[in-house]
């Protein structure tokens, strides 16, 4: 699987790294919903910078989400599994608005939607 299979766009990431990031990020589970961030459609864009660091844009399901610190740490840990020396910056976005259309079939079935 690739990040694009979860509606996430990438920049400056080769196919092998993309697959490794995907495998790592599906382990990052939202503690409230018990579904990973990729299947929820929260990961919006992943960019590898020219110096090998990563910038991750994530959508929030609501304004003032109390879990941003937790989600930030989960994403940083997941990327460290693939690129242990890279710096990771997570940016939370409210636009475009997250909708249930971004959720995978797995997430919908898990959540009963």
Topology:
Elements lengths: L8 E3 L3 H11 L3 E2 L4 E2 H4 L2 E6 L5 E6 L8 H15 L5 E6 L11 H7 L2
Parallel strand pairs: 1-4, 5-6
Antiparallel strand pairs: 2-3, 4-5
Helix pairs in contact: 1-3
Task: Give a written overview of the molecule.
This is MIP18 family-like domain-containing protein. InterPro entries: Fe-S_Maturation_MIP18 (IPR052339), FSCA_dom_sf (IPR034904), MIP18-like (IPR002744). It comes from Lacticaseibacillus thailandensis DSM 22698 = JCM 13996. The structure is a single chain. The chain has about 110 residues and is an alpha/beta fold. Helix 1 (about 15-25) crosses helix 3 (about 70-80). The two termini are about 25 Å apart. The model has no long low-confidence stretch (mean pLDDT about 95). It has one domain (about 5-100): GMP Synthetase, Chain A, domain 3. The strands form two sheets. It has a four-stranded mixed β-sheet. It has a two-stranded antiparallel sheet with strand order 2-3. It has helices spanning about 15-25, 35-40, 70-80, 105-110, and strands at about 10, 30, 35, 45-50, 55-60, 90-95. The chain has four helices and six strands, in the order E-H-E-E-H-E-E-H-E-H. The longest helix has 15 residues, at about 70-80.
């Amino acid at each position: 699987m690739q990040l694009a299979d979860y509606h996430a766009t990438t920049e400056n990431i080769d196919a092998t790294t993309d697959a490794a990031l995907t495998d790592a990020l599906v382990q990052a589970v939202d503690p409230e919903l018990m579904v990973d961030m990729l299947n929820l459609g929260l990961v919006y864009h992943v960019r590898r910078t020219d110096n090998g660091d990563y910038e991750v844009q994530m959508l929030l399901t609501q304004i003032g989400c109390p879990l941003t610190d937790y989600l930030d740490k989960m994403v940083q840990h997941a990327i460290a599994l693939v690129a242990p020396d890279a710096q990771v910056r997570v940016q939370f976005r409210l636009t475009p608005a997250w909708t249930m259309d971004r959720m995978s079939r797995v997430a919908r079935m898990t959540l009963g939607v």
